[in-house]
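#struct-help
A.M.: can someone run this one for me? Single chain, 452 residues.
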Amino acid sequence: MKRKVLMITLGLMLCMPVVWADNGVTDETPVKEEKKLKSAEAVQITEVQEQASRKKRFTIGGYGEAVYSRNFYSDNYLRYDSPQDYKNDKHGRFDLPHVVIMLGYDFGKGWSTGMEIEFEHGGTESAVEIEEHEGGEYESEVERGGEVALEQFWIQKSFCPQFNIKLGHMVVPVGATNAHHLPTEFFGVYRPEGESTIMPCTWHETGLSIWGRAGDWRYEAMLLPGLDSDRFDSKEWIKGGAGSPYEFKIANAMAGAVRIDNYSVKGLRLSVSGYAGNSFSNTLRKATNTVYKDVKGTVLIGAFDFHYDDHNWVARGNFDYGHLSDAALITRYNTSFSNDAPSPKMPVATAAISTGLEVGYDLFPLFRHGEKKEDKLYLFGRYEYYDSMYKTENAVTDYEEYGRQRIAFGVNYYPLKELVLKGEYSLDILKSRFNNEPAISLGVAYAGFFNL
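D.P.: on it. Structure tokens below:
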């Protein structure tokens, strides 16, 4: 009996591995299951990382400004012709100077793209309506003025920090305001008046750019279409020449722009920039009169600007000087256009100038005794001098009202780095026969990127 029990027991022990094997279970199964679990966890972690990476690849941001101004001067178009008739006039304005949506995407392997869509002064609201009391006629109605523009659209290949190539529509980096135009980057309620008068602001063109940074130096060089001299005028010098009334940008003449920044001193950026290009050959209608045979309309702009931010002080300054060759002949040509032409048909100066300095001090550290917080309160002052008709040829009428000084004082409160509340008093000082132009302005603005 004992022998039978022993044999049965040995038989069962020998059969056990076979039975377990038939059921797909071995002594190695716990190890394999652990490996499977680890593998599944790794896949899940990788998927999460890829999703996070994809989110970081896509960026969305923007900036915007809302402003109220009470202007203690006339906005009548005759105020400079008959100053005595408009001495005590005043007017008020609400405005949305710029509201911009910025989009970006990093494709990987050094390829990226960026885009900016800008709504100036609230964009436009227009429609076509049928008038019930005018025989059912179609009538175009504009409910709100303004502009909508694609300010940037480019594709970039980055080879290394020192060398990047950008193709598409981008900002021309000439002058302080074009390179640093976010509302958190200047104290005034509006952009600095001088630079935004004599140059396109923000100046954006389709072209090719190379840029990079090595140590304390950054450079950018850009090839772009020339300006259109048909659209130059007295008040804003060459500013209108960057736009186009057509569905394309004329590119019969090319131009170049360059900018160099230095950051060697802590808290200080020093920058020089420039532009060169012909404009008279970059018009849609070519001159047939032999008097214009050798006219080039060469535009040369040189600019210096700086930014200092340290020890609770912020200081910014700029100096811009521009020269236009053949200004008298361009004036003669432009004033010969018919009334329905897109040209302003105004005199244009040989030279224009803009210089400015603003200084602000953060008051909060005076009361916090070493306690550091994110919010800041700057008391600032600004001085500008600019003239879009700084030099004119004998045959060109000089409109003296376009040369002026401007002083401004105010406060900027930053509850956060991306948000600012602004208030200022400003005074445009014109030559004695004109009325000065004082104003009080209030504004709120933001600039930043948003996490999705």
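A.M.: thanks! The helical segments are 2-22, 29-57, 176-179, 193-198, 327-334, 365-368.
D.P.: also worth noting: The longest strand covers residues 376-391.
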